[in-house]
Amino acid sequence: MRYAEPNALAQIAVVPTDPDYSDISKVYAPQMINAETAWNYTTGSASVTVAVLDTGISFTHPEFSGQTVAGYDFVHNDSDPSDDEGHGTHVSGIVAAAMNNGQGNTGIAPGVKIMPLKVMDYTGYGSWVWVADGVIYATDHGADVINMSLGSAGTSYLMTDAVAYAASHDVVMVAASGNSGLNQTYYPAGYPAVIAVGGTDYYDVWWTLSNYGTFVDVTAPGDTVWSTNWTASNPNAYQYFSGTSQAAPHVSGLAALILSAHPSFSAADVRAIIQQTAVDKGAAGYDIYYGFGRIDAGASWPRPRSWAPLHRDAHRHANAALHQHADLHADDHADADSDQHPHRDADADAAGHRHAHRHTDAHANPHANRNRHTSAVCAAGQCGQHDRLHRWAGPGVGR
């Protein structure tokens, strides 16, 4: 006998049959982050839920058939978070558009559920009260991941409390770093408990409109990303958008895949795996443009049961509270991710314990402070006459 070894199983690589996916001139992001390798392990579990805090979702879009759980509209205070702007539908498609349904593209985690929470109105703006309420709602209703493709140069005590509430309940939070191309911290990405995501472009280099600085954790494709879209004339459309709003849901999708495969992992485990498996870009090691690197979904498997989270730098963490409070009133009417400008003319049981302790705590619930401070945030590019110093770069989509 020459050797003895386990008789392991081999399998074919998962390559979606969705028609747009096969057109590399149109769809490049899943391939760039090595999603096909990750899909060999899981395409996502229906027991994992990603809350998308945005402008809502197009419920009639075939890419979301059977893909959603009940959400809420904090703008109109009702249970119908239908999209009336388009941004939320685009972001949701990047996370979890259906795979192999004969049309369009596929999301990074097509097997998970989307919880649409409308915290932005038809102009792409919303208040910190709506956003904070969305974070609390998502936490109390069992979301595993919260995606926030929105933000502002300033924040509020209310939002600070809401993020702390979600973090105390072990929810993974992901947010866009912003599109001003500035070395400037934006929130909620700037909170240490939130994974801050910068953008890369079609050529896998830093996207020059992506905000940078010591608050950035990782980067992901954000330039000319093809995904689902809502318009008044066609609620079942597809479109290119660019921005860190598009980068963030790639990370949220990856977080959902990790939790699908390892439902007992903590938010710290998920964050550490995403950081430590990222492809190092730019200067060796951590840098202020790429963070720990551009995410690599395929490199996240197989992985050990626990990872030690990495700190971006001692200064950021030692002074986080000071920096957050210093910025609280920096921007009363700021934009948040005006990324909607096309650059091309082209058309579960195991996870149950993670939710068992998510209940309303009267002492921790930041609703008690909801009237303390508010600040406008924006998810779109049609930002009107708001303060140009804090505007996201780029016009709106065709507006």
Describe this structure in a few short sentences.
With 399 residues, this protein is α/β, with parallel strands linked by helices. It is built from 10 helices and 11 strands. It has helices at residues 29-32, 35-39, 87-96, 128-140, 157-168, 244-261, 267-276, 314-318, 320-326, 352-355, and strands spanning 49-54, 72-73, 113-118, 125-127, 145-148, 172-176, 194-200, 218-221, 225-229, 237-241, 376-378.
Note the total helix count. 10
Overall mean pLDDT stands at 80
Using the alpha-carbon principal axes, give the shape.
globular
Radius of gyration: 19 Å
Q: How does the helix and strand content classify structurally?
A: alpha/beta
Question: Would you write up a description of this structure?
Answer:
The structure is a single chain. 56% of the residues are buried. This protein is α/β, with parallel strands linked by helices. Strand 5 (145-148), helix 5 (157-168) and strand 6 form a beta-alpha-beta unit. The chain is built from ten helices and eleven strands. The model is unreliable at 314-336 and 338-399 (pLDDT under 50). It is globular, with a radius of gyration of 19 Å. Strands 2-3-1-5-6-7-8 form a seven-stranded parallel β-sheet, with helices on both faces. A two-stranded antiparallel sheet has the order 4-11. Strands 9-10 form a two-stranded antiparallel sheet.
